[in-house]
Amino acid sequence: MTVTTSASSSSFFTIDHGTASTSAALVGHVGGRFRLLASAAMPSTVDTDSLLSELVTRVVAVDLAVLPDHASWPDWPRLEAASIRPPRVVCAAPDEAHAARVARILSDGGWEVSSAISLDRLDPIALTEACLEPGMRALVVSAPTGGRGGARARVAELCTLLGAALVARVAGRVVAAGGAAEFRGLLGDERVVTASGLDEAAGGGRQSLAAVAAALLADEAPRSPPGVLLPDVREGLRGSLHSLAAVLGRRVELIEVGHSAGMRASADGLGSNRAVVRADAALVPRAGLGDDRLVDSILRWSTDRGDLLLARDRIRNLSVAPWRDISGDGARLRMAATRAALRRLDAAWLQPLDGSAADLSERRTGRRTGRSMDGAIPELVIVSGGVFSVAPPAAIALAVLDAVRRPGAVALVHDHARLLGPLGTLAEGPERERLIGDLLDDALLPLATGLVATDTRASRGHRLLRLDDGGATREVPLEPGTIRFVELPPGREVTAELGPPDGAGISGTEQHVVLHISGGLAGVLVDTRDVPLRLPERAERRRDVLDGWERLAWTGLGR
Amino acid sequence: MTLGVRRSASSAVRLVPSASRVVVSPLVRFRLGVADRALVDAGAEIHAGDPIIERAREPFVVRVRLPAGAAAPTPGALLERGSRLGPEGRRAVRLETRGRVLFVSPAGVLHLAAGRGLEVVASPLAGTVEESTRSAIAVRARGFGIPGILASGEPVSGRLVVRASGPDADLRASSIDVGAAGSIVLAGARIDIEALTRARATGARGVVTGGIAGKDLRTLEASEARHGTALHPRAPFGLVVLRGYGRQPVPGPVWECLAGAVDSRSEAGIVLDPPMLVLDAPPPTPTPTRRVSVVGGAHAGLDAQLIEVLGTWRHPAGVHLPSARVSLMGRRDGGGDGGGGKGGASDREAVVPLAELERFE
Questions:
Q1: Which helix (H) or strand (E) holds A118?
Q2: Is the bond into B274 cis (omega within 30 degrees of 0)?
Q3: Digit-coded pLDDT (tens) for B81-100
Q4: Cβ(A174)–Cβ(A194) below 8 Å
Q5: Cβ separation of A42 and B15 shorter than 8 Å?
Q6: What values do phi and psi take at B243, rounded to 5?
Q7: What is the pLDDT of residue B337?
Q8: Interface touch A320/B245, C-beta < 8 Å
Q9: Is the separation of the CB atoms in A527 and A451 below 8 Å?
């Protein structure tokens, strides 16, 4: 859509339809630019028009002059986008290693791989039932290209078997990639889409498997009441990220955790972008309902000292009834699930692109690889998604730094009105960049600047952090293994200096680091804990450590 | 603080999350395994108890090399025992077991899905078959359904009987007797594995409960799986969970629906896809507009009247949420132990996050 700005209708709504929550925002033209006037997030079962009406009502109650034509709000433009619940896909390949690679591509692309089939361990009954499962939305068959003799015969056998299973299936798409494309006739030719092989460049009329999978995913989007396919909100987030990086002239990263999936993306404004969308990075993945190990991996982040079985059920209820246990200790449990999701997302993000262990180590320690932007330290991290809409800013900042750890400074901001997804669905260009530029200050809530310092020991005691705002200077001693929130309001900028205790010169390995940082709702989060974060293995000790950190971030828990 | 925001009663109540109390004429699915056989065709009218599926409890693969000149059977086709493969003559092969064609490999080996332990699955409801395919039978049910969040076991039918003392009570094993034989037992907020086992042992066909502990659910499923492979399987048993894991009070409007079905002695059916209790009765009347149920937090399980929507309110742990002022209605009858009702609380007001309220349509 194109957002019009005529005098009669200079206001519009953005709506992010999540799987568990709907977030709506009212944007108006005030003082020569677009401004965010009101926003709210509610469970997705709340009628959307009621939510929009509520936004208008709130603004009018404060200042009628801002919306002189408010009675016409039902006719105002709506910029809508929707989350796609990861659809289920079955992938198949001649051997397990190839099947695993296909599964990885699909998993990183927002699909939920329900079965990865190979001829290495073939169960015809399980294969047939997997292909006939009502919830399965696509079948992807892939094989190396250029296979001959026995290898080619294996591909033919695999496609014969799958084709037979698909005879009874009328819904769902079929993708034949690489060497499997030759046997598309065995798979039911008319509905088969072909893709290039995993080890060949896209071309010759074929797109890469990742691109084909992305196109099919877009067809799975929810539809608005008239039946129009809604844009994918995560594609919108990528679009906004790209525009933000261009507007700000810096690298930006985005982390989103939702009810059905999680996403991590980065953009540097120079065309280098990356994104992974993972079903297993949801707040509580579907698999967790029946998998105690997954639930227990979430509870490792919880300070709940109650009955383990009750705690497991509370975690499961976050999946089936995500809004039910929302305040008090329910909010902390939700944040524990969020931290676990962030860790799963981080693990997927950090999986080596080329399989080298060294690559992984460099990313974890934050040293720049110089080879690709994927190893670079982000300067701005945006958090988005329904799970963050009900947590205090300090808790969000702590959760992000717990999971996504790099030495250095990072500005953490919150897409609190979930504007970026719908805005990013506008066509790339000046209009989108202008809107994002206008709304930047309103849309992105400064949470905190995170300072992760790992080298905190000095020859004469602990190193010092000095914060100088041009007037007063504050000194913060950096004790290893601690976190500390230092007050610094949003918009205030200071020079942060990390140096030896007496400030005297530079010697040996005692680096003198100077950074220009700004504050946030939670100020500056000074973090001298390990990278990667290490927690005690013993449950009681682990909870004590987590509780000590959380008491700094959650109000009402005492210090 | 409401900032002087004025909302109409109808607009305020529409900010409360809605839930479907009932689904009229729901479409339900019965899955078929690869070795199963549908016994009804599309368009057929069926009643509770009618056979709809012949199920093989233990499917296995049979491999038969096709003789030269034999036409490859169509995938999905059902071949009877004794079927001839290939032209008449010495080289003809006759099947020793009935099976469904999976595929014929390029090397000419026919793979069939056969099954041991054939049993008949009866329909748990009345309705019209809309679709009958190799993978599922879809039936448009008569009456209405009360949706749940999960179901386990087998589709079953029976009269609905109540054994819990109230919608927020736990159902104890001692409350279940042989009088529930042939029935579907309505539990309250929670049922444990001991009560489930007793229900099954006394001949109950199934249980409807607000909540169940995850551990007990897995124990039940493991028990069902073991008995599914036994030489003489037990009568089918079904479970539908309406609200979630652990202790989950059944909201007042839903409980009234169920109680009405008990009183009218309606036939009930438990189905798995979607998880639902289907009742062969006219749909209930809508609930009053401003009546809501509290589904989370300190007042979970209580019904309430919506007084006003307040806007954003600060709640424990510093969480800011859109909230409403409600008038809580007293504890319902029974209030079992285990954290349930304390009985006899008078009406009182509370500020509750909108997300912890539900209104039923």
A1: strand A112-118
A2: yes
A3: 888 888 777 777 888 899 99
A4: no
A5: yes
A6: -120, -35
A7: 36
A8: yes
A9: yes
Q: Which residue of A has its CA nearest to B20?
A: A45
Does the distance separating the beta carbons of B3 and A327 come in below 8 Å? no
Q: Which two tokens stand for residue A326?
A: 């929302």
Distance from CA of B353 to the nearest CA of A (A): 8
Minimal-distance CA residue of chain A relative to B113: A125
Helix A308-320 crosses helix B214-228 at what angle (to 10 degrees)? 90
Q: Chain B within 8 Å of A53 (Cβ-Cβ)? A: yes
For residue A118, how many other CB atoms are within 10 A of its CB? 20
Indicate yes or no: CB of B213 within 8 angstroms of CB of A309: yes
Q: What share of chain A is helix, strand, coil (3-state, %, to 5)?
A: 40, 25, 35
CB contact under 8 A, A50 and B316: no
Q: Please report the residues numbered 133 through 152 in chain A whose beta carbons come closer than 8 angstroms to any beta carbon of chain B.
A: 133-134
Q: What ipTM, to 2 d.p.? A: 0.89
For the entire predicted model, the pTM comes to 0.90
Tokens of A200: 């060949």
Write out chain A residues lying below 8 Å of B60, CB-based. Answer: 125
How buried is residue A371: exposed, middle or buried, by Cβ count under 10 Å (0-12/13-18/19+)?
exposed
Average of per-residue pLDDT values in chain A: 86
Amino acid at B217: L
Q: Which residue of chain B is at minimal alpha-carbon distance from A123?
A: B61
* Cβ of residue A323 closer than 8 Å to a chain B Cβ: yes
Q: Map tokens 């079953």 to a residue.
A: B156
DSSP-based three-state secondary structure for A418: coil
Two structure tokens written together for A378: 């982000």
Q: What is the pLDDT of residues A41-52, one digit of tens each?
A: 999 999 999 999
Is A323–B136 a contact, with Cβ atoms under 8 angstroms apart? no
Q: What is the pLDDT of residue A557?
A: 58
Q: Quickly tell me which residue has 């929707």 as its tokens.
A: A82
| pLDDT tens digit sequence for B133-183 | 888 999 999 999 999 999 999 999 999 999 999 999 999 999 999 999 999
CA–CA gap between residue A219 and residue A224 (Å, rounded): 13
Q: How much of chain A exceeds pLDDT 90, in percent? A: 55
Residues of chain A found within 8 Å of residue B4, distances taken between Cβ atoms: 61
pLDDT, tens digit, for every residue of B238-279?
999 999 999 999 998 899 999 999 998 889 999 999 999 999
CA–CA dist A331, B120 (Å, integer): 48
Q: Write the Ramachandran bin of A60: left for phi over 0, alpha for psi from -120 to 50, otherwise beta.
A: alpha
Dig out the tokens for A191 from the structure: 């509905």
Q: What is the mean pLDDT of residues A12-28?
A: 95
B300, two tokens: 């979970």
Cβ pair A124:B103 closer than 8 A:
yes
